[in-house]
Amino acid sequence: MTEPGKPGSDPALTPVSIAGIEGLRGLVGREVAVSDWMTVDAARVAAFADATGDHQWIHLDAARAARESPYGGIVAHGFLTLSLIPALRASAMTIEGIGMAINYGMNRVRFPAPVPVGSRLVLMPHRCNCSQSTCGTLRSTGDT
What we know:
Blueprint: E1 16-18, H1 20-25, E2 38-39, H2 42-52, H3 57-60, H4 62-68, H5 78-83, H6 85-92, E3 93-95, E4 120-121, E5 126-132, E6 138-143
């Protein structure tokens, strides 16, 4: 059995295979896929704290967070939840026939609610736009 949060962990959620750039263009304005569920555990939050140097107690000190935070326990870093998008996307879809994909950036990123440790996340990407750039690459934007 595949580990939860890894591609293929739910047989009903086989990654969607997108046929290259033309396939991607055909998805403008549509829901593309649904990822596997991923549990955000304390070990992942602690590893992210070590990687980024953000050791604020609300992310690491369970006893203090239970006493003092409005969330009743430790919560994931907002940037941790954002950084999980590539792994969640990989469990949802593949794009065939492309040389590489890079992250161009993010627009209007907000963290409207805390993600308590133990929460399960899922990604449901929607393709909004595809445009050809001047250097011959395709710029694809979407809402998540």
